[in-house]
Structures are given as structure tokens and as C-alpha cells.
């Protein structure tokens, strides 16, 4: 039986299951056998997550359920759930060889492939940009900042799912007459840049942090959706209608609005209907819709499908 190593090493497996009691945590784990040692009448089999196989089959290396809020590792129960799945898969093919133990290399969020589906492919990029903007907002005054190069490291953010690198031009606009914080932005396709303007009263700066995090998640998800649409040939920033109602009811704009509002709903734990109502009320001077048009646009946004 000691020739099992020649049979098992390099073999690939796939396990699919939920790490929590809901389908939001459903994952498809690609892994392979990297070694097998026969000691004390037992095969000790070493396993590692196979991220290359995962990516080549349409999966990427982040799982929303556990990484979305910044978690770095799965907990003991989630780990045992995954191990049970891996042991089950290995057992199907190799239990006839005798006793064996499974050893899996240490796991973190970056090791766990998650299906790339709508609403999930942008979350790491959104999280990274929000984190950097909040860092600047807390520590700097009004002015212009270029991200991520401001921090002296990378010059661009990388979006491997879309094969695009992008940067952010951030403007912190201090307005002592402002009674709230306002966030606006645009995606420039010619140089893959997001322009983001944050207007706020510096006297109340730190009180805005929570609201700013929600607004940035909405805006960045919105603009990343436009980036995806551009790649698919569905978005042209240079050919937009002039009338506000025509602009806001374009299919690519409805999709981007819905994705952004859904993201903010998840972050703030508010119903998406409330998030949509709040945005259209707060930003009346931006959308310039009549009350009747505004209600029609909101209905169209809520009719979008994931």
C-alpha cells in the first residue's frame, strides 16, 4: 500500500458546500494533494487550496461571507465544515487503501475561491478604495489626493477579475456652510480613473465617518459596475442623454444604481428601499428630477434583477 503516494499526489478535488446555514456562504473549494507519507500504518495526506484551478474555472480567491467585513480567517466551525467536505471527497477514492489523516495548509480569506457572480466581483476593490479614502479623510485636510500612489506604494488598484488597473482622484472639499456630507463621482474610461469629490463641513468632520463609509461603498460599486459594462461594450460615458430622466433610466445606469444601493444596504444594514429613498431625497440638486420622475426612476431601480 505504500505506493499510494504515486497515485494520489497531484490529484485534484472539488468540494462544494455551505460554510453557514444559508446559500450566501456557499463555496466551491478546489484543492489538490501535495504529499503523502506512510507512517505508523497511516497515510498522512497533505492538501492545499488550488487557486489556479479555481480561477481557470471561473472562480476567484475571495469569499464574500467571511472577507467582506475584513475577516482574515475562517473560524473553527467553518474550518471543520470545510475539512469534513475535503475528507469526504478524498475518502471516496482512497478509503480502500487503509487509514489516513488529512492535513490542510493554513487557510485565510485569500485561499478560499468564491464563484464570480453579479454583485460579488467588486467587493475587494471597493473595500480597498474605501479604506484608503477614509484614511485620508481622517488624517488630511481639504485638497486633492491621488490614490493609491499617495501612500507611496502601488500606483494603481488592480481588478484581476476584469483585467483592469485603475486609480482614484480624490478631492476633499471643505465647506463651512454644509450641514451634511456629500459624495459625488464619475468614471473616466479613457484613463481608467475614478474622480471622487467629498464635500463636508470640517467643523463636524469626524461625525461623518459612518455616513461616508456607506456613501463611498455605494459610489465605488456604482462606478466599478460601469467599468464592467465598458468592458462588455454596454457603456459609453461620452454618449449620455442630456435630460435627467432619460439619463437615469438608461439600462446601464439602472444596473449601476441598483448594485451601488444594494451594497450600501448591506453595509448600513438598512432596507434597500430606504437607501434609495434617502439618496434621491438628499441629492435632489444632482439628479434634477421632478417628484413624479423620481418615483418612476426608483420603481425602475427596484425592478432590477441580480
The value of Rg in angstroms is 24 Å
Mean pLDDT: 79
What is the string of SSEs from the N terminus onward? HEEEHEHHEEHEEEEEHHHHHH
Helices and strands: which structural class? alpha+beta
User: What count of helical segments does DSSP give?
Assistant: 11
Provide the number of structural domains: 2
- DSSP, total strands: 11
Kindly state the percentage of residues in helix.
40-55%
Strand portion: 15-25%
Distance between the termini: 51 Å
Shape: elongated
The low-confidence parts are 58-74, 112-119
Biggest sheet descriptor? 5 strands, mixed
SSE blueprint and pairings:
Elements: H1 4-8, E1 12-18, E2 26-39, E3 42-49, H2 51-56, E4 59-60, H3 64-67, H4 76-94, E5 100-104, E6 114-115, H5 123-139, E7 143-147, E8 157-159, E9 164-174, E10 182-188, E11 193-200, H6 209-231, H7 244-248, H8 251-268, H9 272-282, H10 284-287, H11 291-302
Parallel strand pairs: 3-5, 9-11
Antiparallel strand pairs: 1-2, 2-3, 4-6, 7-9, 8-9, 10-11
Describe this structure in words.
The protein is elongated and about 75 Å long. 41% of the residues lie in helices and 24% in strands. It contains 11 helices and 11 strands. The longest helix has 23 residues, at 209-231. The chain has 2 domains: 4-115, no CATH class; 123-302, no CATH class. Strands 7, 8, 9, 10 and 11 form a 5-stranded mixed β-sheet that branches. Strands 1-2-3-5 form a 4-stranded mixed β-sheet.
